[in-house]
């Protein structure tokens, strides 16, 4: 038998794997006792549920289970109890199917689910290489329930422009075309194509899920990496405080192309994100939405804290929620103004910062926010 768990997947000796409780139930039902019994005796299933899925209460219940029927019953009961959850019901008709390979707590996957809920089925997604692409489309499977095309880092927006022109030529102007990528696929490597599409005026929606580094290839710094964050290419140490440059202000750069709509969003505020995407769809011409998407692996925090950290970014003013319409910038959420230290200290990429460093960070954030929004 193989080791029971790897990352957020449960691996079986026959080469199959599970990454969700429902998948585990199906496997338990379809396998014979000889296949499953060793995992039960070693407590592997309980450990996987506790460590990989962060379901400690359920894990403790299953730990005492003696056979697969009782395990199935306990897992099923747990799932049934969660059916009344408001957020679960909100996404029961997800257009991004479960079972993909994103890390537990992945902000990009959450962003995709929220995005697709607002976009609906009448859409074509042009997805740049990156975390979201490689984890949702491993051949021969896909998690996308809408027309979707994988393109390279460099040209997601160019491909979206071509798709738009082709659909228009067929009289299918009602189909939404979206170019989506991470900060590599949009902010750095794919920026030329992104800028070109905006400048040409194509009727497309460009979305960046911003996890603030090249997470897919080893957590290298990007133009979106925050000041003083430690990455694999800007490691903090005796001679360095991490990245030396401030985060690239891409929403303002996008607005400088004189496009009709630009907005920022956060996975911590799904209603705000949904509202902005639907608003973008009502506007003809190029639109841009920049979604803040925390990454538990690259930022180094517990995967259960993703939404909490996303909200702290907004409430501490590290990430502002706003719209730019025809050049006019408007704040869409007034932050509470919690200390920047709460946000920074929740992630190990900032653990090298001293109290004086954090104080300077707070000063810069306050100064920048006041300059932008007058408050």
Number of strands: 11
Question: Which radius of gyration do the C-alpha atoms yield?
Answer: 22 Å
Q: What is the count of DSSP helices, taking H or I runs of 4+ residues?
A: 17
Q: Mind telling me the CATH superfamily name of the largest domain?
A: Thiamin diphosphate (ThDP)-binding fold, Pyr/PP domains
Largest sheet: 8 strands, mixed
Task: Describe, in plain words, how this protein is organized in 3D.
β10 (322-325) and β11 form a beta hairpin. The chain starts with a strand and ends with a helix. The strands form two sheets. Strands 5-4-6-7-9-8-10-11 form an eight-stranded mixed β-sheet, with helices on both faces. A three-stranded antiparallel β-sheet has the order 1-2-3. The chain is 43% helix and 13% strand. The chain is globular. α1 packs antiparallel against α5 (68-81) and α9 runs parallel beside α11. The mean pLDDT is 92. It is α/β, with parallel strands linked by helices and 375 residues long. The protein has two domains: 5-84, no CATH class; 88-373, Thiamin diphosphate (ThDP)-binding fold, Pyr/PP domains (Rossmann fold), CATH 3.40.50.970.
